[in-house]
Amino acid sequence: MAGQVTGIVGPNGAGKSTFLRTLFGDHAARRGSLRLGEEQYSPAHRRKWQARIGFMPQDNGSHGGLTALEVVLLGSIEHLSLRLNDVALRRAASVLDRLGMIDLSQRRVETLSGGQRQLVYFAQALMREPAVLLLDEPVSALDMRHQMLLMKQVREITRQRRIITIVVLHDLNLAASFADRLIMIHDGKAEVDGIPRDVLSSQLLERVYGVQTRLHYDPDGRPWVHVHDANEVHRAV
């Protein structure tokens, strides 16, 4: 839904990344169809479909030799000519500044830390001015502070621009804090879909993840997952 963040959660190998690649049009769906507004996806018009989507996959490639600013500018490559215009440069600089990365704009991307690169690729996805934002584990290499910074930006940008945002997250507590709704994927199918309080239950988490948990709730009703049986975690791993 426009203006909302949907979190995709589930164990390793459940099909979360495949789900995002299918939405982007890089993976063929076995059944069903994709529709955005009045437009329905077809392989013949894949580039037109993807032009409306900002996709940040897990593996973005190295882009060796390019600066952070140049990598961000690639996000609007459809609109770039052989000569960069001031509007594109200002937009790229503004996105980097919003993420606290402007001081690193002239650094070659391969010299950045893994977390810094993730922020650069998130900025690249935003440069497309997408109607849909697909983010595959965008916080996996970030420390706690930058996880919160990026997810706050995801939520604010989603609401300000009224876009559809779908983000894969492993941290259930982070997902419950920032997602308006969650989809739990297990063995390639959606187990449950709803608001975090309805999706996250001790019974479901034990069945899907093989761990015992306790659920706590903040004053707004957001659940907080606490794993309390270390032996169960050891056996599940």
Automatic annotation (TrEMBL):
Keywords: ATP-binding, Nucleotide-binding, Plasmid
Nucleotide-binding keyword on record: yes
SMART domains registered for this protein in UniProt: AAA
Molecular functions (GO terms): ATP binding; ATP hydrolysis activity
Listed PROSITE patterns: ABC_TRANSPORTER_2 (PS50893)
Domain ABC transporter, first and last residues per copy: 1-212
UniProt feature coiled coil, ranges: none
Gene3D superfamilies in the cross-refs: P-loop containing nucleotide triphosphate hydrolases (3.40.50.300)
The name this protein goes by in its record: ABC transporter ATP-binding protein
Lineage, highest ranks first: Bacteria, Pseudomonadati, Pseudomonadota, Alphaproteobacteria, Hyphomicrobiales
